Automatic annotation (TrEMBL):
Organism ancestry: Bacteria, Bacillati, Actinomycetota, Actinomycetes, Pseudonocardiales
Subunit structure: Homohexamer; trimer of dimers.
Enhanced intracellular survival protein domain span: 300-395
Protein name per its UniProtKB record: Putative acetyltransferase
A GO molecular-function descriptor: aminoglycoside N-acetyltransferase activity
The organism of origin for this protein: Amycolatopsis umgeniensis
Similarity field: Belongs to the acetyltransferase Eis family.
Xref: HAMAP family: Eis (MF_01812)
GO biological process, one term: aminoglycoside antibiotic catabolic process
Keywords: Acyltransferase, Transferase
Positions with a binding annotation for acetyl-CoA: V82, G83, V84, R90, R91, G92, V93, L94, T95, S118, E119
Length: 399
C-alpha cells in the first residue's frame, strides 16, 4: 500500500479527475469545448479522488434506482469513471477509493451499486458480481422474413439528431422498467449520450412507435456504409419498448429500412426472442454474450429483504471479505429475509450472491463452477426456484 489519501473531489477538480480516468483508458484529455459539453454530467459530491499529493486516481457515481425481482425499486449508485494513473497502479489505490465509496453509500443509505466493467477481473474482489448478461446479435436483413402471426405494430414516426437529443429523456422515462436490473437514468447521464451521438459520422435517427395507448417504444440507430455500393450496416444504438406490439413494430420498421444489408444490436437481454420473429430463426446470429451489469449489495440484509422469493425457504451463508458486517446467515422465504443462526443450506461469497440476486444465474450452475457450496441437491433445487425470476435481468443503460 503506497502513501495516499482519499477524499471527495471539489467541483474545480472534476475536470482533472475526468482526465485521469480518460488517460487510464488511453483516451486523450478533453478540449475546453468537450469539457463544457460534458461537465453538467458531474453530479456534485459523488466523485472521489486519491492524492499523493497529486491526483492519482478517481471513482464517481450517479444517483439512480433499480428494479428488483418482484417489482420493488430501491436506490442505487451507478458507479463510473474509475481510473488510476498508470504510474500508480497495483498499490491499493482503487481499493482505497472503493472503500471510501462504499462508506459514502452506507452513510447516504444507498443499499446497492452497479457498474459496467472494462475488464472482468477487477471488481469481484470488491463484492461486485455479474448480475446481468447481454447478447450481441446480427440479422441478415435480406433473408429475414417475419412469421405471419408476428404483430403488425402501430405507427412509426422519425426523429432527427436534434429531436432525438431533445426527446430522449422523456421517451425513456415514459417506458416501464420491467426487468430486474433496469435503472432510472439520472439527468447527469444524458450529456454523455448527447456527446456520443453528436460525434456520430453518419445520421442518427430515432424511430418512435405509437400503439393503441400512445407512444410505447423507440429505437435509435445509425447506418454505416463505407462507399456508395458497399454493404451497409444498421447499428441499433438503443432500443426500449413497453410490450410485444412495440417490440414487433420497431423490428418490422428496422427490417424495412432501404439500403441496409445487416443489422446489429449489442447487449440485448439474453431471453429477448428476436430470432422468433422470423420464419427462419437462423437469420439472427448471436455474435457474443457478455457481462452487462455488475451488481454490489452494499447492504446485504436490506437488499435481501427488498426482493421477493418463490418456493421453499433456504438459509444462505454469505462471506463478505470487503464489507464484513454483511457476513452471516440469512433465511430467505416467501415471507422475506431475516438474519438467522440456523444451519446453512448454501454458502457463497458476496460477489456470487450478487450474481444470484437478480435471477441472472441458477444456484446449481454456480455450484458446478464451485462458487456455491450446498448441503445437497435439494438445497440447490430450492435455491434455483427461490431466486428464479420470470424474465432475465438486464440493466439496459450504459454509464
Ligand atoms: C466502472 C468503470 O469505470 S470500468 C473502468 C476501469 N478502469 C480501467 O480499466 C482503466 C485502466 N486501469 C486502471 O485504471 C487501474 O488498473 C484499475 C482502476 C483497474 C485498478 O487500480 P489499482 O489501483 O491498480 O487497483 P488496486 O491496486 O487497488 O488492486 C487491487 C487488487 O486488484 C487487482 N487488480 C487491479 N486491477 C486489475 C486488473 N485490471 N486485472 C486483474 N487484477 C486487477 C490487483 O492486482 C490487486 O490484487 P491483490 O489485492 O491480489 O494484490
Amino acid at each position: 500500500m503506497s502513501d495516499f489519501s482519499v477524499r471527495l473531489l471539489r467541483p474545480d477538480e472534476d475536470r482533472a479527475a475526468t482526465d485521469v480516468f480518460r488517460r487510464a483508458l488511453h483516451a486523450r484529455e478533453m478540449t475546453d469545448e468537450e469539457w463544457s459539453a460534458i461537465s453538467p454530467s458531474m453530479q456534485p459530491d459523488r466523485g472521489f479522488g486519491a492524492f499523493d499529493p497529486e491526483l492519482i486516481g478517481t471513482v464517481r457515481s450517479f444517483d439512480s434506482e433499480v428494479t428488483l425481482p418482484g417489482g420493488g425499486i430501491t436506490p442505487l449508485a451507478a458507479v463510473s469513471l474509475v481510473g488510476v494513473r498508470a504510474d500508480r497502479i497495483r498499490r491499493g489505490v482503487l481499493t482505497g477509493l472503493m472503500r471510501a465509496q462504499f462508506e459514502d453509500f452506507a452513510a447516504r443509505d444507498v443499499p446497492a451499486a452497479m457498474l459496467h466493467a472494462s475488464e472482468g477481473a477487477i471488481y469481484g474482489r470488491f463484492g461486485y458480481g455479474i448480475a446481468a448478461r447481454g447478447k450481441s446479435i446480427e440479422i441478415d436483413r435480406h433473408r429475414a422474413r417475419f412469421r405471419q402471426e408476428v404483430p403488425a405494430g402501430g405507427q412509426i414516426s422519425l426523429l432527427d439528431l436534434e429531436s432525438t437529443i431533445e426527446q430522449w429523456p422523456s421517451l425513456f422515462d415514459a417506458l416501464p422498467r420491467t426487468r430486474p436490473g433496469m435503472i432510472a437514468r439520472s439527468p447527469h447521464l444524458w450529456p454523455g449520450y448527447e456527446r456520443e451521438v453528436r460525434r456520430a459520422t453518419t445520421p442518427v435517427t430515432t424511430a418512435v412507435h405509437r400503439g393503441a395507448d400512445g407512444v410505447d417504444g423507440y429505437v435509435t440507430y445509425t447506418v454505416e456504409r463505407a462507399k456508395f455500393d458497399a454493404p451497409s450496416l444498421l447499428k441499433v444504438q438503443s432500443f426500449h419498448y413497453a410490450g410485444p406490439d412495440a417490440f414487433a413494430g420497431l423490428w418490422r420498421y428496422l427490417l424495412s429500412v432501404d439500403l441496409v444489408d445487416r443489422i446489429t444490436a449489442e447487449k440485448r437481454p439474453l431471453d429477448e426472442p428476436v430470432e422468433l420473429l422470423f420464419a427462419d430463426p437462423r437469420r439472427v446470429t448471436v455474435q457474443k454474450t457478455q457481462d452487462e451489469g455488475w451488481l454490489r449489495l452494499v447492504d446485504v440484509a436490506r437488499m435481501l429483504g427488498a426482493r421477493t422469493y418463490r418456493s421453499e425457504p433456504v438459509v444462505i451463508e454469505v462471506t463478505d471479505r470487503f464489507l464484513d458486517h454483511n457476513s452471516g446467515r440469512y433465511r430467505l422465504s416467501e415471507d422475506g429475509a431475516v438474519r438467522t443462526t440456523g444451519p446453512a443450506d448454501l454458502a457463497m461469497d458476496a460477489d456470487t450472491l450478487s450474481m444470484l440476486y437478480l435471477g441472472g444465474w441458477r444456484a446449481s450452475d454456480l455450484a458446478v463452477a464451485g462458487r456455491v457450496r450446498a448441503t445437497g441437491e435439494l438445497a440447490l433445487e430450492r435455491a434455483d426456484l427461490l431466486f428464479g425470476t420470470r424474465v432475465n435481468p438486464w440493466c439496459g443503460t450504459f454509464f
